[in-house]
Amino acid sequence: MATPLTAARVGSQPRAAASASRYDRRLAEILTHATDVFCKKGYEGASMRDLSRESGMSLAGLYYYFESKERLLFLIQKHTFSTIVQRLKARLEGVNDPEERIRIFILNHLEYFLANQAAMKVLSHEAEALKNSFAAEVAAIKREYYRICVGLLDDLKRDRGPQFSTRIAVLSLFGMMNWIYTWHNPRVDADAASIAGEMGDLFLRGVTTETKVRKER
Amino acid sequence: MATPLTAARVGSQPRAAASASRYDRRLAEILTHATDVFCKKGYEGASMRDLSRESGMSLAGLYYYFESKERLLFLIQKHTFSTIVQRLKARLEGVNDPEERIRIFILNHLEYFLANQAAMKVLSHEAEALKNSFAAEVAAIKREYYRICVGLLDDLKRDRGPQFSTRIAVLSLFGMMNWIYTWHNPRVDADAASIAGEMGDLFLRGVTTETKVRKER
DNA sequence: ACTGAATTCGAACGAACGTTCGAATTGTCG
DNA sequence: CGACAATTCGAACGTTCGTTCGAATTCAGT
């Protein structure tokens, strides 16, 4: 885990070093169940009673682990996003070819997306549900992730056909990838690697090809 | 308007032909305000009291025009989606070049999206909020729209490089386009035609180029 | 087994929710 | 103006919401 979940503990609660792991384990369990409920019903549509039922803990008991429903969503989003960024950085290390680095970016995103569909849907679909400092902290991670992708594309631009807007290209790529939560069906669609390959081909050809498309508008 | 809004009138309500237009005008007003509120707060997050405040009509008064909050969302989604499909069909008429037809598809989608941002966000973001027959009716329109796009791509495939999955390509294109509601900023970003041009270049190059991308995975 | 801390819970709080209903108001037309 | 339909509204309905609190239970170390 990227962020020690213990950091979420309610302020005035005492903490013994020995029980830290038990607390963390239980919190992680709750977060997993809550992720499923938020995924199924949406953040606003999911009630604390839904979360209580799904996680098998009493309504009041949940509040021992976090002080509000909003903070719960925040913990899910922050943990999910931190993890995907951290994994990306690890995978990019030692790879220098610009094109290969973009393929890694896409593969990392889609692999994590499909392996953690519920969490990623909550991250994508409930992006506007948080407010103030909660929203700001998640937005900061999102900005870092976005900047990394911009960097990858700018590197590619330095080598090849330079005639496209980096902003539009990056945001188009994010759209292609994130939209997957609306359509992916494990019984019909191939695995993450195949889809990442298809999207990588589509995107990289679109961005690197030097010849102009026929019938310019 | 594609669908006569009168169709929404509560079943047992009497109707005089003379007042039909007044009723329709008022309903359209309410729909517009409701669209803004749903866009800002989400369907679940928006309360009937929010809609009442925004539209300047009393809480009870709203129920003269529709029988439930869910039906209100349905009316918005159906009207929006029907309109975009209808406009697309009109624009495609008489154009035969497969590539040009896809460019028209993209332009139509993005122009309508940016001209009706709130409605399109409600359509994209609240796709799962409706249930049963409401959901089925909107899903039918979505399927038709999807099939049209598949047809356009298959036509293109017949001419040029055939090595891509139509399903993945179409859904990637939808992702690129629909994701725009998460990032478009009229103070920073160009107009719909420019963005449609960029995305059209990106997508069509990605889909038509015959040479394989270097460094095959 | 005892003890103090960590964890869980039943019950309740006030607020806000979607919806209803009968009365009041407005518009239409002879 | 009178009469009937169309439209609007205040007030309230029962339910569910997120959250709190003090008591009960479970756990860990001796």
Please explain how this structure is put together:
Two copies of one chain form a homodimer. Chain A is mainly alpha-helical and 217 residues long. Chain A is built from nine helices and no strands. The first copy, chain A, is elongated and about 60 Å long. Chains A and B meet through α5, α8 and α9 of A and α5, α8 and α9 of B. The structure holds a DNA duplex (30 and 30 nucleotides).
Brief overview, please?
The first copy, chain A, is an all-alpha fold and 217 residues long. Chain A has helices at 20-41, 48-55, 59-62, 69-92, 98-115, 117-125, 132-159, 166-178, 192-208. Chain A is 66% helix and 0% strand.
What would the average pLDDT of chain A be, to the nearest integer? 89
End-to-end distance of chain A: 49 Å
Described by the principal axes of the CA atoms, the overall outline of chain A is elongated
Low-pLDDT regions of chain A = 1-19, 213-217
Number of beta strands of chain A: 0
Pick out its properties.
homodimer; 217 residues; mainly alpha; 9 helices; disordered N terminus; disordered C terminus; DNA-binding
Write the layout of secondary structure elements.
The structure is a homodimer of 217-residue chains.
Chain A: H1 20-41, H2 48-55, H3 59-62, H4 69-92, H5 98-115, H6 117-125, H7 132-159, H8 166-178, H9 192-208
The first copy, chain A, binds a DNA duplex (30 and 30 nucleotides) through residues 13-16, 18-19, 22-23, 26, 47-49, 57-61, 63-64, 67-69.
